[in-house]
Amino acid sequence: MVLGNLESIVDAVLFAHVSGRVITLATSIRQVSPSRITDPCFFRGYPTKVSRRLTSTDPAFTLRRVISDLKSSPLQAAHVALGARLVPFAGWNMPVQYTSIIDEHTAVRTRCGIFDISHMGQFIVSGPNAAAWLNELLTNDIAKLGVGQGQYTLMLNENGGVIDDLIAYRTGEAEFFLVVNASMIDEDFFWMAARQDEQVVLQNESELWAGMAIQGPNAARIFSAVFPNEILPPRNGIMTTAAGSVVCRTGYTGEDGFEFFSPGAEAIGYWDQFLAAGAQPCALGARDTLRLEMGYPLNGSDLSPERTPIEAGLGCFCDLEKGDFIGRETLVRQKSEGPGMKLTAIRYLEKGPPPRSHYPVISAAGNVIGELASGVLSPSLMSGIGMAYLPAEFSTIGTLLSIEVRGKTFPAQVVKKPFYQIPHHK
Amino acid sequence: MSMNTPADLRYATSHEWVRLDGDIATVGISDHAQEELTDVVFVELPASGRAVDAGDPTAVVESVKAASDIYAPVSGEVVDVNREVEADPSLVNTDPYGKGWIFKLKVTDATHVFKLMDAAAYENHIS
Is the complex ipTM more than 0.90? Predict the structure, then answer.
């Protein structure tokens, strides 16, 4: 077998800054680097989509060290002390696991986990025209947000394709706090800056903020232990602590919990307090299994500039009545005609090898009808789950399909999202 | 990392171990390899009777995050596979040199096993 750090990240899309270019690394890499786990390696001259198996001797790529190009989280020393495996992710050196993905996943589902999300981006949008301007750039109706409330929303290109999915919080009558994907910070910012309104101030504060996501049934208790004098905001809400940190009642796991942003220099102190209060360190590997069990999309895998939110099943986050916004026209058309392709949840009917992105999806008639955008062995269900863009006629719940793995097919069927029901959900 | 590298086994650079008994070589993955993988959740076994050359991908071990080929450390014919590890893949993690073995080869040339690394050389290889 081949051991290398990049095989640790096969289920996440990576963006590597190499020679000033941003390269999307494909997700189906099974074997990549014979180098030691401590060598963050990136690909150069890499094909942007890989569906065949690669080996380290494959002439299709060469490996190169670009350690100096990687950004480090303010929490990096804590990760190293905890024995985390660090991998390049979205240009950052981030932990992919501490103990094991299943162990960390279970901690979040049954107790509480804490994730370093310092790589994520934060924009502040303010000014008298901030709400109206954001409403032209984002799909959800930002006017519905009262101060202290947040919403999941998407930023689309002119064709209705997804640039990024994000959460927008209203922090004042004319001030908004946006949290965007790490891999998209620059692209989002340039897209917004190119359309800037004179009455709006757009600030990229991503470098200033460290972030942690505290997730699990015990999250509220842990918040109270660390902040006895603060009140956790309601679901999707945002508040600022007396010390100036930002607390958002949101997450990417389906569990109760909150996302916490503080200045980088203060992060380690809070991290230690959350750990002392009972949160278990959890990393990107578990973050991916947790979000996929909920059917939450990952930009770059399940969302792309070629797919609209209607196709991705995110139509409820697109307000087609609020007025014009970029990409609306396509959404209106797709909504009336019905999308030709739908991001479809698929679950194995029996035991099989873990489904992974790019594995072919086969119809009952034996035709290849798509490929998995995301796939994983669900630790909660101990069953293979995945999502694929399929022609709409194959997206009805109960449709029998199969997933092809190394030339063999494994029976599966279309299921309802989420794959996993949170038992203690209020 | 606590490393467990039994002295009576031979090791391939690709992290498989071999235990030779007559002309039968039992193959598994090293403690180091299982520790790197963590959470083995699926093992795909080769067909019995299959002839393999040294270096051929012969089995697949999958963790939650990755699928890894297991290569034949020496040439031979697959004469036995571990159905127990197919039913309970975590045996690869909990007992990599015992119940976690993966397949057995009737080797073409037993002397090839001794060209593989001994425990000291393998420990040096992974350090």
Answer: no
